[in-house]
Design goal:
- It is a single chain.
- The protein has a nine-stranded antiparallel beta sheet with strand order 4-1-6-7-10-13-14-17-18, covered by helices on one side. Strands 3-2-5-8-9-11-12-15-16 form a nine-stranded mixed beta sheet, with no helix packed on it.
- By secondary structure, the chain is mainly beta.
- The longest helix has 14 residues.
- It is built from one helix and 18 strands.
- Helix content is 7%, strand content 51%.
Length: 207
């Protein structure tokens, strides 16, 4: 994907936000765009049909993004919520009114919400059985199948939940900056292990 003129300026602003600490304020998830790709990235619409990549590609509920080896994708949501797909990752977007969910089918995802969400707004990063409630924070998630997710937090705090097949919460823990939560579901039993993580273990795709 190539960027020129104003497109390059918009991309630089988006990336500056992505790598920044975080701010304060309120926002709503009204627009989503794929602002940058590196390597091989594909996008499918809600019908499963391939979407042609273009500058600042609009993303909608039901869209799925997939990255191949040594490939990455940056999603800008209202210039206040940004996400980056790691290599060999797949993420589905689901949005209904003020509920936004990024469903990580495989791989890893970096997130940075630079302004706190409104009280009636919800943003989740999840698999079918794990969910992380995001407000104004940044960090990353690593998945290993549908029944294991690790969340590492760089700023703010998040609620980490393990869910049953009906999306009822089996167990929940809140973590803060510098902590990691390993969530697992084994034979119907839920576990969450919280520990401090070494700043040196921050993966390269987060930087």
């Amino acid at each position: 994907m190539k960027y020129k003129g104003r497109g390059l300026l918009a991309l630089c602003l988006a990336l500056a936000l992505l790598l920044s600490a975080c701010g304060n304020g309120e926002n709503t998830a009204a627009t989503m765009h794929l602002v940058k790709t590196e390597g091989t990235v594909s996008v499918d619409d809600a019908k499963g049909e391939a979407v042609k990549l273009m500058e600042n590609l609009g993303l909608f509920s039901g869209y799925a993004l997939t990255t191949q080896a040594a490939s990455y994708g940056w999603i800008n949501m209202d210039d206040t919520k940004l996400a980056k797909l790691d290599a060999q990752s797949q993420v589905d977007i689901n949005k209904a009114d003020k509920l936004l969910e990024l469903n990580v089918r495989s791989g890893n995802l970096f997130f940075n919400v630079t302004e706190p969400l409104e009280t009636d707004e919800t943003m989740n990063i999840r698999t079918s059985t794990m969910m992380v409630g995001i407000r104004g924070t940044c960090g990353w998630v690593e998945t290993e199948g549908e029944n294991q997710m690790r969340v590492c937090l760089l700023r703010g705090k998040v609620d980490c939940m393990v869910l049953d097949e009906n999306s009822a919460v089996l167990t929940m823990e809140t973590i803060t900056a510098g902590q990691a939560a390993l969530m697992r579901l084994e034979n119907g039993e839920a576990f969450i292990t919280v520990e401090e993580f070494d700043p040196q273990e921050v993966p390269a795709f987060v930087e």
